[in-house]
Amino acid sequence: MARDIDDIQRDIERTRRQLASTLDELATRGKPQNLVNDAKREANVKLQDPQVQKVLAGVAVAVVGVVALVVARNRKRSNDIKELQRLLAGRV
Questions:
Q1: Start-to-end CA span in the chain (Å)
Q2: What whole-number distance in Å separates Cα of residue 49 and Cα of residue 42?
Q3: Pick the residue with more confidence: 80 or 92?
Q4: What average pLDDT does the structure give for the chain?
Q5: Domain boundaries in the chain?
Q6: What integer is the mean pLDDT of 47-76?
Q7: pLDDT band (50, 70, 90) for residue 92
Q8: What distance in Å separates the CA atoms of residue 75 and residue 29, rounded to the nearest whole number?
């Protein structure tokens, strides 16, 4: 059964409108500010997850521990150097 030319034109117009709508939506989604807002929204959702909060707390504790160890080690090394300097100054 052959399609009427008017039916074909209506289909073409409907397809054009759908394509235009799709392109408009893609343009809107692709704007940098919208991408930033989407990323912020997704990050906030992830940060609300209790499992993610536990992991981040664990990482924070580990980082603080490593920093504390480095500071303590540097202080000890500095004190050892000062003690050596004092001993060497007394020998002269």
A1: 113
A2: 11
A3: 80
A4: 92
A5: 1-48, 49-92
A6: 96
A7: low
A8: 53
Looking at residue 90, its amino acid is G
The encoded tokens of residue 1 equal 């059964």
pLDDT at 3: 79
Q: DSSP letters along 2-65, please? A: PPPHHHHHHHHHHHHHHHHHHHHHHHHHTSHHHHHHHHHHHHHHHHT-HHHHHHHHHHHHHHHH
Q: Are 34 and 28 in contact (CB under 8 A)?
A: yes
89 to 15, 75, 81: CA distances (angstroms): 91, 21, 12
* Residue pair 50/44 in contact by the 8 Å Cβ criterion: no
In b/e form, how buried is each residue of 18-37, taking b as 16+ CB within 10 angstroms?
Answer: eeeeeeeeeeeeeeeeeeee
Structure token digits, residue 86: 């004092």
- DSSP letter assigned to residue 92: -
pLDDT attached to residue 23: 95
DSSP structure class, residue 76: H
The pair of structure tokens assigned to 59 is 């990482």
